[in-house]
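Possible race condition, two jobs.
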Amino acid sequence: MKVPKTVFILKVLAALVALTSASANCDPAFGNDFVSVSTESDDCALEVIGKIESVATVALNAATSGVFGQLSTASAAVQQGVKCGQKFFTVVDDIVAYAEGLKTNFPNGTEEQIISLLNNSDIVVKDLPTAVCVCLGLNVPTDYLNLASDVVSVVNKVLIQVVEQGSSLLSVDTFMTFVSAIGAGSSVESLAEDDTATLENLISKGKTCGTELQSIVTKVSQAVTDIKTADATSTPSAIRLAMSNTAIFLIEIPTVTNNCIQNITGNAYTVRDQIRKAIGVITDNLIDSSADDKGNALSTGDYILKVADMGLDVIAMFDPTGIAAMLEEFIQPICGPTAFIGEIDDGSLADALALVADGEAFADSYGTWTHTGDGTVLVTFESADTEDVTVEIHSAGETIASIDVASGETVTWNSTVSELQDKTMYLDRWRPGLLGLPGSGGGSLVLWVPQSSAGGHIELVVKINVS
C-alpha cells in the first residue's frame, strides 16, 4: 500500500524534528553526518517543540495546494499519466544530450554504433527502463539485466528515435506524439483535457530543479540497491559510509542545488541551504530504509518496493522553493548548512557560510569568504567586554583551540581552510560569572567552512560583548 504524499512530507518533517531534538543537550555539532546542526542555547529543544504544530500546518497546506495537491488527490490513473509523461521526458532529454555528445566525439559513428554506446550508459540501463515501467504501470525493475519484453521493446524504440530525430523530439507536441507512437503512452492518452494541459505545462518547462532533485533521489536509491546487491547484509551504517565519498554526495548534490537557486535573488543562500537540508533528510531516509524496524537488512527487492511506496517520485512536480518555504518554519536559523555544501561563491559570511550569532556574547560579528585565496582562516577577536574571557573554538564538535582575550584587547588566531573544510566551526565564550566562577552562557557563534578547489579565504571578526 502506498504512503500518501501528505504522510510522506510529515515523515520527513518528523525526521527533522528527531534530528534537531537530538540537540536538546546542545552539543556543538553532530560531526560529519549528512545534517550538521549547531546550537548553544539551552532553550533550543523548546524552540523546536514550539514549532511542530505550525510545521504540520504548513505541510498540510502544501499538500493541498497547487499541482502537488491536485496530483496527490487525483485518481491513480491521472497520477500515472502525469508522472509517466514528465519522468519519460526528463530521461529522453538526458539521452538526447548524451547522444549528441557521442555524435560530436565520434562524428563518423554509425547509428548502430551510437545506439551501442548508449546501451552502455546508466541512463539507458537504469533510468530509461524505470521511466518505461512507470508509463506501463509495472513495478520498478529489481533486475535491470532481465527486463520484461515489453520494456525492452520500448527502450529499443526510444534509442532509435533519439538517434534519428535528436533534440526535435523535445518539443511538447512532438514528444506527446512520440510517447504514444512507441507504445509507452496509453496512460498519457487517457488523460482528460485539463490533466493533459497540466502535463504539457510541466514538460514545457524542460528540466527543472524538481526533476534534477528527483534524479538525485533516484540515484541514491539505485546506489543503495547496488550495494545491497553486492552484499545483502549491508547495514545502513555501512551503506552510509560507502556513499559518503561518492560523486553523488560530493559533486552532484552540491551542483544540482547550486543550479536550483540561479534565478533566485535576495534569499538565494537561505533557499539553497533549506533545499539541501530537505535532500539530506530524504537521502538519510533512503539509506535507513535499507533495514527493517528491527535493524535487519532488507532484501534488494523488498528495499526497492519500500522506496517505491514512499511516493518520492512526486518531488519532480514540487517546486523545491516550495519545499524550502515549507521547511523554513522548522529549520532553526542557527542550524548551519549541510555536508552537501560543495563549492561556494564569494560573499559575506552571513550570506555565504550561514554565520549566525546566538545571544549577545558575539553579536555583530562579521566577515567575508572568497572562493579563490591562500587557504587561510583568519579570526580576529575584538573585545568590548569588561572581563577577561576565554573563547573556545570547536570544529565538528571537537575543541581545537582556546583563546584568551583580555578586556578591551584584540587577539588573532589562524587556521586553514583545508583543516576545517566541510565541518561546522562553532565558538563559545567562558566568562567570570557568579562568585567569579567561569561560565559559558551568553551566546555562541557558528558558521560552515566549505571546501574550495581554489584555496579559499575566510576573514572573521569576532565581537566579544558584555553579556
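Job #2 (started ~2 s after job #1):
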Amino acid sequence: MKKVAIYSRKSVYIEGSVSIETQINMCKEYILKKFTNSTFEVFEDEGFSGGNTNRPAFQKLLRLAELKQIDIVVCYKIDRIARNTLDFLNILEMFKENNVELISITEGFDPNTQMGKVMLTLLASFAEMERSNIQQRVKDNLLSIAKKGKWTGGSPPTGFKNNPNGGIEWDNKDMILDVFNMKYEKSKNTDLIQFIQHKYNHKFLGGTLATTLRKPIYVKSSSSVSLYLKSKGYIVQGTEDNIHSYLTYTDKDTKYAIVSNIVGLIEPSIWISVNKDMDKNISREGNRFSEKFWLTKTIRCKCCGQTYCGQTKTTKTKYYNKKGEEKIYVSTYSYYSCRDAVRGKLKTCTNTKRVKQDVLEAKVSALIYSLKDEKIFNSSYSINKVDNSFKIASLNKKVIEIDKTISNLTDKIALLSNDASLIFIDKIENLIKEKSSIKSNIVELELQELNSKIKTDKALIYNNIKAFNNNLSVDDKRKITMSIFKKIVYDPETNDLDVTFM
C-alpha cells in the first residue's frame, strides 16, 4: 500500500487559478490509475506564495517525509512545491534521501516513467553545479573585497558601527583605548570588564573581551605586527604604513590579514605586548577545566540556568612530625559549581554552593542505572514529554463547532432580506477567520510533535541508558549522558535532580 501525500496550494493573489479542491481530485485520479491500493493525506495551503517555503501544511508534509511516513508526494504542478529553483532542488534532494517520490500530474514529472527518470538525473546535476557555483562566487567576491582592504560585511567589531556606504567606521575610540591600555597595564579581566561597563555601559560577555583584544583591526599596521600575525599562520598582504589597521579573512584553510582602508588606533608595541601576554596565559593554563569532569555539558544550575563547571583545588598545609621536622601535606579537592560562580565580582547567580565531584557524579550514575529498569524509564519519559494530542483534539472540536455554526447561519441567511442578512454574513466572515487561525495552531502543534519525533527516539535513548556503565571513560560517559538528557537541573538546596530527556 502506497502512502500518498497530496499537496495543493493556491495563492490569493492569482485570479482564475485552479481551485484547491480541483487540484486534489485530479491528483487522486492520477495516482489511483497507477497505484490502486493507496491511502491519501491532503495538505492544503491557501493564500501562500510559491516563493515562500515556510507554509504550515507544507512544513508538516516535509517533517512526515523525514520520518519516512510518506511514499509519494503528488501535486498539480511543480510550482505548487516551490518556485525558486534552488529551494525546489533542495526539497527534491531531501525527498530522495528519504525514498519519497515526487509526481507532478500535469508536467510528466514522474520517476516511474523513463522521461521522469531523465529529468531527475538532470535536475540533480544542475543542483550540484548551481550550489558549487554560488558558493564559489560568494567566496571569490568576499576574498576580492577583503584583498582591497574593505569591510566584507557582518556585525561590526566592538567600538565600530556600520556606515551608509556598507563599510564600518569608528563609534567609540575612547572605550577601545581604555580596554587596551588597562590590559597593557596588567589589569585583571574582572576589573577591566566592570570599569568598561560602568563608564561606557558596554558589557563584555563570554569570551568577547579576548576576541576584541586579538583582532588586528584595532592596531596600526607595522612590520612588527605583520611578523606576529605571520607567526600565527596569517598570510599578510598590503603595505604597512603605521596608520591603517588590518582586516582578517579566512578562505578554506588559508588565513589572510590585509592592510585595510580603516584607520588603526592602538600602537603596535601595546597590541603585540597584550597579545603575547595572552599567549603566555594560554600555554600556562592549558585546559582550564579538567577533562575528568563528565557532567559539565549537562548539569545546570536551578537558580540561573547556567551549566556547572568542574574545578580541582590543591591545598598545601605545613605540619611537624614527631621528630620536629617540617612536612607539607598536599590535598586535592575536586568539585562542581555553577559556572557563574567562577566569574568573581561579575557573578550574578546566588548559588555559591560547591558539590563534590564524586558525590554529584555518583548521584547521576545512580539515576541512570535506575532508568535501566524499563518500567521506571517509561514512567519518567512519559511524564517528561509534552503531549500535544489533547490540545489538538480540543482545537479540532472547536473547528467542528464553528463549521456547524457557519452552516446554521448560512441556512438563516436564505430566509432573510439582503439588509438583514449582512449581519449574519459579517458573523460568518469572523468565524471563518477564527477557524483559519485555529487550523494554523493545529498545524503548528502537529509540527512540534513531528519535530520531537525527528530529533529524539525513545528506543534510542533507552539503548543509550543501557550502554552506560561506571567503567566507561570520562569522554564516553559525557557523550552518552548528553545523548540521554537535554539537561539535568541540580537544586543545591534540596539536592534533587530534575531531568529533561533529549
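DSSP finds 15 helices and 15 strands in the chain.
Logs attached separately.
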